[in-house]
């Protein structure tokens, strides 16, 4: 996976940008490209020497994730109708991926700072709760700001994994418009 596309995202010079869909970009400081995707080491951080050097991060080898995980990602540039989203997780059983019905909503709180530019040239920070919200019958909703200046604009959730058993997990994103209608997003593969 790469970090191209999304609001303020870059268009790779030799590829079509991510126009629609969702792509996970990092877990904490670790780019998703440095997380083994298949085989017995799947889900473990294996940071290359070059990435370690480029991003000034530790060169992890076969390192699991745990604690409070900062999960970041981007929606496609054309997904302007996405106002809310949910993130769901499901555990693998050995080498068997989870079934669609195994996914459960993550409901960890997410707060960011919005920076408001004042007419006198000063900046006012404002703490904003982005979720989770319950609106009507929908639970576990996070608001997706698309304008303004925000801390960590691609941060989607800070997942407290201490309540989960050890293992390999898949995450998925569900998107909704302002009226809470589901927004169909194409599946983006790494």
| Overall shape | globular
Task: Output mean pLDDT.
Answer: 90
Portion in beta strands: 35-45%
| Straight-line N-to-C gap | 4 Å
Number of E strands: 13
Rg, nearest Å: 17 Å
SSE string: EEHEEEEEEEEEEE
Largest sheet: 6 strands, antiparallel
Structural class: mainly beta
List segments where confidence is low: pLDDT < 50 over at least 5 consecutive residues.
1-14
| DSSP helix fraction | under 10%
Query: Helix segment count?
Result: 1
Describe it for me?
The protein has 190 residues and is mostly beta strands. The protein has a domain at 22-90 and 152-179. Helix content is 4%, strand content 37%. It has 1 helix and 13 strands; from the N terminus they run E-E-H-E-E-E-E-E-E-E-E-E-E-E. The protein has one helix at residues 49-55, and strands at residues 22-27, 30-31, 68-75, 84-91, 104-105, 110-117, 123-131, 133-135, 138-143, 149-150, 155-160, 169-176, 182-183. Strands 4, 5, 8, 9, 12 and 13 form a 6-stranded antiparallel sheet that branches. It has a 4-stranded antiparallel sheet with strand order 2-1-3-11, with no helix packed on it. The protein has a 3-stranded antiparallel sheet with strand order 7-6-10, with no helix packed on it. Strand 12 and strand 13 (182-183) form a beta hairpin. The longest helix is centred in the first third of the chain and has 7 residues, at 49-55. It starts with 21 loop residues before the first strand and ends in a 7-residue tail after the last strand. Residues 1-14 have low confidence and may be disordered.
């Amino acid at each position: 996976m790469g970090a191209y596309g999304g609001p303020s995202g870059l268009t790779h010079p030799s590829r079509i940008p991510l126009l629609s869909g969702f792509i996970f970009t990092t877990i904490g400081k670790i780019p998703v490209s440095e997380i083994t995707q298949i085989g017995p080491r799947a889900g473990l951080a294996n940071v290359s020497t070059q990435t370690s050097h480029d991003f000034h991060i530790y060169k992890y080898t076969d390192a699991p994730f745990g604690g409070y995980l900062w999960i970041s990602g981007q929606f496609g540039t054309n997904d302007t109708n996405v106002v809310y989203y949910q993130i769901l997780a499901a555990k693998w059983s050995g080498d068997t991926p989870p079934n669609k019905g195994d996914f459960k909503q993550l409901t960890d709180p997410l707060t960011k700072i919005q920076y408001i530019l004042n007419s006198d040239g000063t900046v006012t920070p404002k703490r904003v709760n982005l979720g989770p919200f319950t609106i009507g019958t929908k639970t576990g909703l996070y608001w997706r700001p698309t304008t303004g200046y925000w801390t960590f604009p691609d941060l989607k959730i800070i997942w407290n994994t201490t309540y989960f058993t050890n293992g390999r997990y898949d995450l998925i994103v569900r998107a909704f418009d302002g009226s809470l209608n589901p927004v169909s997003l194409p599946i983006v593969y790494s």
